[in-house]
Design brief:
Largest sheet: 8 strands, mixed
Number of strands: 8
CATH architecture: 3-Layer(aba) Sandwich
CATH topology: Rossmann fold
Low-confidence stretches: 1-10
Strand content: 15-25%
Radius of gyration: 17 Å
Distance between the termini: 32 Å
CATH class: Alpha Beta
Number of domains: 1
Mean pLDDT: 88
Number of helices: 8
Order of helices and strands: HHEHEHEHEHEHHEEE
Helix content: 25-40%
Length: 260
């Protein structure tokens, strides 16, 4: 989600209208048939992508390869989830063993996320703050996630510069967003918002969608090297998502900060 209304007015990720929209969701974040049901459907595939990236990129504490089939394949990794909302992504990553710091500007989102994690017995460092504020004196993380976030911020290059500054040398930044194509307008806005009602109408502004070339360039300006990208396509027969070469609508991109 976009960042805090209390942040400086010129902050790259400040958009008070976006904050208010997501803050209104409340407990609906965890309603599998509610306004976030589309994100819940998407979650298994993006979690598998993040898990597989981490297992391929980071060795385990004993220096051996990580096994994605294990119960806690992300043990020992520090992950920052920017725009965590109600914790839909943060909770399963914590269950995989990651040490999670999860931030969102909306107080209601953080309150819901904290309550849900407490009920589930999960220890997640939830903070109501902005990427800009956190970056001041923040530690560096193994992975920084900006999942379904950049299409809600005011200045994508400036935002990713801040997010990228919190990636340690050898670490990763992963972004997921929507491509600015006519097909994305038809499917993500007309279809998902107004016909299927997967998300609240007005959630997305097509003009803020980000093309892969724009995202790639912004990550490179942030000092990161893009090394993987994949599309996400919906299978209506299986009511599920899968990775694909088709990046015309939803896609994910991974970049690393090179070691000196």
């Amino acid at each position: 989600m976009s960042q805090s209304a209390s942040a400086p007015a010129g902050a790259a990720s400040v958009d008070p209208e976006e904050i208010a929209r997501f803050d209104r969701l409340g407990e609906e974040w965890w309603n599998l048939n509610g306004p976030m049901r589309g994100l819940h459907k998407l979650n298994p595939e993006r979690l598998a992508y993040l898990r597989d990236l981490a297992c391929d990129h980071f060795p385990a504490a004993d220096g051996l390869a990580r096994d994605p089939r294990r119960a806690r394949p992300l043990a020992g990794l520090s992950i920052l989830d920017i725009g965590c909302g109600g914790g839909i992504l943060s909770e399963p990553l914590a269950r995989m063993g990651a040490s999670m710091t999860s931030i969102d500007p909306a107080p209601g989102n953080i309150a819901v996320a904290r309550r849900h994690a407490e009920v589930g017995g999960l220890s997640i460092d939830y903070r109501q703050t902005t990427a800009e504020d956190l970056a001041e004196g923040a530690p560096l993380y193994d992975m920084v996630l900006t999942m379904e976030v950049v299409e809600h911020v005011r200045d994508v290059p400036a935002f990713l510069l801040v997010a990228g500054s919190m990636v340690r040398p050898g670490g990763l930044l992963v972004a997921a967003t929507l491509n600015r194509t006519l097909r994305a307008y038809a499917l993500a806005i007309v279809g998902a918002e107004y016909l299927l009602r997967w998300v609240e109408p007005g959630t997305h502004d097509w003009r803020q969608f980000v093309t892969p070339d724009e995202l790639r360039a912004a990550l490179q300006r942030a000092g990161l090297t893009v090394f993987d990208e994949t599309g996400l396509t919906y299978n209506p027969l299986g009511d599920s998502w899968r990775r694909s070469r088709d990046m015309a609508v939803n896609y994910m991109m991974a970049a690393r900060r090179e070691t000196a």
